[in-house]
Write a structure and sequence with these properties.
The protein is mostly beta strands. Helix content is 4%, strand content 32%. It comes from Bracon brevicornis.
């Protein structure tokens, strides 16, 4: 697979007039929590923060020996496969029954 979209996208900040990365829930991914936000996918050093640009989606590829590479690509002009993370809550027990 090439150009695997992992749910991040960009949005222009109202306060600073700069572009920022958002996760799939619309929460900002800052330089300090970039690694934590993507820890479910691959380990990544926060020093590898990708500059946010207008209308970019967060992508993942691999280099030699499976090293992850995160980068942005235009969201609407390039077809991209999507990697989704599903969080399934266990069924609650009512009256001792599942």
């Amino acid at each position: 697979l090439q150009h695997l979209w992992i749910g991040g996208s960009t949005k222009k900040s109202k306060e600073s007039d700069e572009w920022m990365w958002l996760d799939e829930l619309g929460n900002e991914i800052t330089r300090s929590d970039f690694n934590e936000a993507l820890a479910w996918c691959f380990e990544m050093s926060p020093s590898n923060y990708i500059n946010a640009q207008p209308n970019y989606c967060l992508n993942l590829d691999s280099e030699a020996q499976g090293l992850p590479i995160f980068y942005g690509l235009p969201c609407e002009s390039i077809k991209q496969n999507v990697l989704c993370r599903l969080q399934i809550e266990p069924a609650s027990m009512e009256d001792g029954k599942k």
